[in-house]
Specification:
heterodimer, A: mainly alpha, 9 helices, 67% helix, B: alpha/beta, Rossmann fold, 3 domains, eight-stranded mixed beta sheet, six-stranded parallel beta sheet, 42% helix, transmembrane helix (chain A), transmembrane (chain A)
Chain lengths: 286, 489
């Protein structure tokens, strides 16, 4: 039997099922089994991001409980910024002449001073901005915003184009985190604490993700040690506040890094992709 | 002599909308009526077109007062249509409903309700769907639920059948060998066309070869491929021109291409083309180009071939089944390959190897609606004489849908039964206004002549008592019949 419609007088009834029925059906044609190690490596950006949120939260609680001096936090932030900036410029060596590089450093210095001053002058405003809102609302709001931040963050590895042309920050994600810090800042007692927290928040949610994204192309050892560093500091900072919470964090980290990839590999055996002549063809236009 | 059936076509897609499904339903209904069956159409309302209308030649259409949500499809809600459908199906003494198109929720609901009144069901699938995107996943789930209990399924091409069988899971498990086989009630019956509407005309004496494209200008129709290949073809063949008919989101890109390559005098853009003008547009060219990325049947290709054009098409979906290989050139959906196929077609046409009149005569023998109606009749016959699934088996089959969908659909089924019992009590069958009169075409003709002559007449004798048609409306329908009942795709 030919699979044609134009032969109107076929010797078969219309419900005849030929032997080659569904012969063009392809199951899982593009199936590539994942390997556990590559998935673990790909999950580290998520762990890193969660760890930086947890570090930020514990810093906030320490500030609120006044067990951390805001001045120490500010000096730490500045030191981190300088270290991070040096690393960043080392990774992006695009300038040929030392003159252009110095010009770049000066520009960066100028804008960081501007942000520094703007934050300092705004911190009294930020402290009282949501002061009239009840604390329960603030916690709920901050939790929602941080979840939004974690969901919308960019965990992908940088592409070739991004490496040469820079990249767009996932704006919504960053804004969610900074808004969360603003609402949290209103729970702090002094202006200097607010200033320290905001400075730290910009470091961890605007600048640090850029650096982490850039570091994803670095060797496995660097990524692993960065992740370990962040995870340990998050757990250690929380351990002094609440033991139970620290255990929970450790659980989250292990499940994201080690259990979730295993789950994905297990779920792959249920993959059932059906392809056939009915699919919308992809046009090739050169 | 088989018995005369009362059939209700149910679909969201019907006149005054235009398209392939709409045309199919109309043509099939008319041809079934010619064979002596009684056919009505049930669809949703369009603007102020609510209630009962008649289309020539005596096709009764019920427009139910539902509002479409998107692309003329109504929201699937399973129950609201039951009061309407029950009344209509009972008063019209329907034996069998024939639902069309998998995106038509009113069709699905018809299949769900029909068993309550002992009515048999047939479903025709007109389109291809993938399995990946969210829309497909949701519609496919809905389709599986509906097709579990349908009596027969008709697809318009072999590829379409493979697709529908997979989407609707139309398999049966053999109790002994435990192998899955395709259900016996899935048929392939193609579309057809009225060959007389697409007559070829002698080619113009000039050396110019015109390539005709008539298509909705959308991504799925592969307009990107047209945009990529048209400038190359124009550059390679100075005697080839394009005529492009159709409208859509890709029109702007087409205009930009034409401007960029300064091809204003080579590529003519016609804008939207009405179906009755398609034939005249086709008659201007000698090659028809179709770049669709997916196509279940491809009626446009058939119309072009019937009008004597040589067809070049992408090899997608059911297109390779439509025409014999010597009437069509295939290309992969790839700009280079389409260019190659068009070059071959230009060669064939300029050497005069393609005879339009011979092609027309051949297409005439391939497809006609009478034959489609006969083949559909066979399906109806089989369905009517087969055993009806009882409620318990229906529930068992529905439970096979899966651990989540199964119980949900079963609950819907049971609630539907209870709703039906409530309606039986609330609107008893004895109180229904049953249809006793039918359309008498000759009487109607006589009356129309009288009306035109100015004679006072009562149209009541000619038409069913229950209809809401006024004389001016009937006159309007008669006068606009030719333009209204022909369809675009």
């Amino acid at each position: 039997m030919e699979k044609v419609l134009w032969k109107s007088q076929q010797p078969f009834p219309d419900n005849f099922v030929p032997a080659d029925f569904l012969s063009l059906l392809k199951k899982n044609p593009n199936f590539r089994p994942y390997t556990y190690s590559s998935l673990v490596l790909l999950s580290t950006p998520i762990t890193q991001h969660l760890a930086s949120i947890f570090i930020f939260l514990s810093v906030f609680v320490h500030l609120k409980e006044q067990s951390l001096d805001p001045r120490t936090l500010i000096w730490l932030s500045v030191a981190c910024f300088i270290l991070g900036y040096l690393l960043w410029s080392f990774l992006n060596q695009t300038h040929d002449t030392p003159h252009a590089a110095i010009n770049d450093y000066l520009k960066a210095f100028k804008s960081s001073i501007l942000i520094f001053l703007a934050l300092m002058s705004l911190s009294p405003v930020l402290r009282t901005l949501t002061a009239s809102t009840s604390s329960d609302t603030i916690w709920a709001l901050a939790a929602i915003l941080f979840i939004l931040n974690a969901i919308l963050a960019d965990y992908s590895a940088p592409s070739e184009k991004e490496l040469s042309h820079g990249r767009l920050i996932p704006v919504l994600s960053m804004n969610a985190a900074v808004s969360a810090s603003v609402v949290l800042a209103s729970r702090l007692a002094t202006d200097i604490a607010v200033f320290g927290l905001m400075l730290f928040s910009i470091q961890s949610f605007a600048l640090f993700p850029l650096l982490r994204h850039r570091l994803q192309t670095s060797p496995v050892a660097v990524q692993a040690s960065l992740t370990a560093c962040l995870v340990m500091s998050a757990t250690w900072l929380t351990l002094t506040l609440s033991q139970r919470l620290a255990y929970m964090y450790a659980l989250v980290f292990t499940s994201v890094t080690f259990c979730a990839p295993g789950l994905l590999i297990w779920a792959q055996k249920y993959k059932n992709e059906l392809r056939g002549p009915w699919d919308v063809a992809v046009p090739r236009v050169n | 002599m088989q018995e005369r059936l009362s059939i209700a076509m149910i679909s969201d897609f019907f006149y005054p909308n235009v398209g392939g499904v709409e045309n199919h339903i109309y043509m099939l209904s008319v041809n079934l009526m010619r064979k002596g069956h009684k056919v009505i159409v049930i669809t949703h309302s369009h603007g102020d077109r609510v209630g009962i209308r008649w289309l020539l030649p005596g096709l009764k259409v019920y427009y139910l007062p539902f509002v479409p949500i998107a692309s003329s499809a109504t929201l699937p809600n399973f129950f609201t249509s039951l009061p309407y459908l029950r009344t209509i199906l009972l008063r019209e003494h329907i034996h069998l409903i024939h639902a069309h198109a998998s995106l038509s929720s009113i069709g699905h609901e018809g299949i769900l309700h029909a068993h309550l009144m002992g009515i048999r069901t047939v479903f025709t699938d007109h389109s291809l769907f993938g399995f990946e995107d969210a829309a497909s996943i949701l519609t496919n789930k809905l389709l599986v639920g509906t097709l579990k209990n349908v009596d027969a399924v008709i697809c318009v091409s072999h590829t379409g059948r493979e697709n529908t069988v997979l989407r609707g899971q139309l398999f049966e498990r053999d109790e002994i060998t435990l192998t899955l086989t395709v259900r016996k009630n899935v048929y392939v019956i193609p579309n057809a066309l009225i060959a007389e509407q697409f007559k070829p005309c002698p080619p113009p004496p000039s050396k110019t070869i015109t390539i005709v494209v008539i298509s909705r200008l959308a991504y799925r129709k592969g307009i990107d491929l047209l945009i990529a290949t048209a400038p190359r073809i124009c550059a390679a063949f100075p005697n080839v021109n394009f005529v492009v008919g159709g409208d859509g989101p890709k029109l702007i890109e087409l205009l930009q291409m034409r401007e960029k390559h300064r091809l204003q005098d080579r590529i003519e853009l016609l804008g939207p083309v009405r179906h009755e003008d398609v034939s005249s547009v086709l008659s201007r060219g000698s090659i028809f180009m179709n770049t669709s990325l997916t196509e279940s049947f491809g009626i446009a290709i058939l119309e072009a071939a019937c009008a004597g054009l040589y067809v070049v098409s992408t090899r997608v979906g059911g297109v390779p089944e439509v025409l014999p290989d010597d009437m069509i050139s295939f290309a992969n959906p790839d700009a280079d390959d389409i260019f190659r196929a068009i070059s071959e077609a230009v060669q064939i046409v300029s050497l005069g190897q393609h005879d339009p009149f011979h092609a027309h005569e051949r297409v005439k023998t391939f497809y006609n609606w009478t034959q489609v109606a006969t083949r559909t009749e066979v399906v109806y016959e089989t369905v009517i004489t087969s055993r009806q699934i009882d409620l318990w088996e229906r529930m068992q089959r529905t439970m096979e849908l899966g651990p989540f969908a199964g119980p949900i659909y079963t609950i819907i089924l049971i609630v539907d039964c209870m709703f039906f019992l409530f309606l039986e009590w609330w609107m008893p069958r004895e109180d229904l206004d049953y249809v006793t009169h039918e359309w008498h075409h000759d009487k109607f003709k006589q009356h129309m002549e009288d009306v035109k002559a100015g004679a006072p007449t009562t149209i009541q004798e000619a038409v069913d008592h229950s209809t809401l048609v006024t004389i001016p409306e009937l006159l309007k329908q008669v006068n606009t019949y030719n333009s209204e009942t022909s369809f675009n795709w």
